[in-house]
Amino acid sequence: MNQERLTKVLDKMSEKKVSQLVISDATTIFYLTGKMIHAGERMLALVIKEDGNHALVINKLFPITEDLGVKLVVIDDTDDAVAVLLEQLDASKTIGVDKNWPAHFLLSLMEKTNSTDFVNGSEITDSVRAIKSEEEIELMRDVSRDNDTAIGRLQELVPEKLTELEMSEKLASIYKELGNSGFSFEPIVAYGANGADPHHETDDSVVKEGDSIILDIGGVKNGYCSDMTRTVFYKSVSDKSREVFETVLEANKRAIAKVKPGVKFSEIDAAARDYITEKGYGEYFTHRTGHFIGIECHEAGDVSGSNHNVVEPGMIFSIEPGIYIQGEVGVRIEDLVVATEEGCEVLNHYPKEMKIIG
């Protein structure tokens, strides 16, 4: 296991007075072991204990040939997986359980331990993962550089008047050529009024003159995700659409300028939201300003009015204000930023100023 990351988890466990932690989340197991395992409905659990007796409970359908630096406890489909897991735990002590574990595993474990206390251990691993190492930051720079290239090549295809779905298919090929393993999320290509739905599902629509074009895309490389959004226009832009665009662009810039250690995420959200409201479009900004990102496209933590935690160096998150006017136009502009000691570094460098294509 990655000893530096393991030590941070153990330190956080000590701080929270949790002596043993069951980790079932595949991305956190990857974070600690370097091995991505998708076990589906079968038991997969990494047990971390303050006494150092760590264990990975895994089904034999997923053979591990390399040394992960942790004891392997191999089970098969006929075993009582929860009973085997319990053998790795001290039932007399509190058990921390991380997020996303199927209820039938947790409920069964609770039944078998009777009086044992259970606590949500997600904050332990999430808080450690939120602060990226220099190695992780460089991986995020690398995958983001690819995303700059990808969105540029995608914009070059706009004059061909491909459908939204065809654009998405082309993007898959672009990522493959760039050495990315796939999408970090299903890409959003939204023409015109389709862009007024923040999570529009790409369809057979064809771009028309005057349409805004939202391109919200991300890839995966070396286990880390990219994510960015650019909005351009096809052939022409109306005065109202231009005003909406310039408002979103300025909101994006104001929020980025606000990022530095010690600033609350709610204050960053307000920097974008208050400006959009001041310009008369507040009701059309319908989502949070950003989300954390790394091994997963959406990690724990966000940039929202309800998050009063403060920025710390090494955190990576999106800044993505938007305005969505139903039946008319949608505009979103998104960048990833990494918090530094003095402010932040923007990971996306593809131009975001007004652009009319065609």
TrEMBL record:
Family annotation (Pfam families): Creatinase_N, Peptidase_M24
InterPro entries reported for this sequence: Creatin/AminoP/Spt16_N, Creatinase/aminopeptidase-like, Creatinase_N, Pept_M24, Peptidase_M24B
Species per Swiss-Prot/TrEMBL record: Vagococcus fessus
SUPFAM superfamilies: Creatinase/aminopeptidase, Creatinase/prolidase N-terminal domain
Domain Creatinase N-terminal: 5-131
Signal peptide start and end residues: none
Protein name: Peptidase M24 family protein
Domain of life: Bacteria
Domain Peptidase M24: 138-341
